[in-house]
């Protein structure tokens, strides 16, 4: 059995795509997953499973959500080792920053640098971003809501064809903990 985190994009935001966490837990248990827990209301579930890989688990969950709730949701599934590696590879001094200043965008595929070639890093300073393994790290000193760089990075053409979902540093760390079995 492997412990995973499912990251759902764009649910329970602004009254759209409402997906109660208790119903998500029930749905995932019905799919044969064990020890299903949710974290916050914004689309994180931790579970164990002995079948499938991350891509097939994500596709299975996305399909089940659409069937049950009537709307499509992008889903990424990542295991503990990957989540820990992303946290450990952070190119910014996470321990010195407030959680609202540091974000990780998890991507469905490796982030090709040419996708970001039109974004002028100097134009957004002191905000910065770095690419990782199927992850993009964003340092936004004034928070995500005021970030012009986050706005540029979220344009549809930048991540066209990718699933991309962003989490603040507190959530990044908590998902590492939860998938390690620490409650």
Automatic annotation (TrEMBL):
InterPro entries: DUF1697
Gene3D superfamilies assigned to the protein according to its UniProt record, in alphabetical order: SP0830-like domains (3.30.70.1280)
Signal peptide: none
Superkingdom classification of source: Bacteria
Record SUPFAM superfamilies: SP0830-like
Pfam families named in the record: DUF1697 (PF08002)
Name this protein carries in UniProt: DUF1697 domain-containing protein
Organism: Streptomyces fuscichromogenes
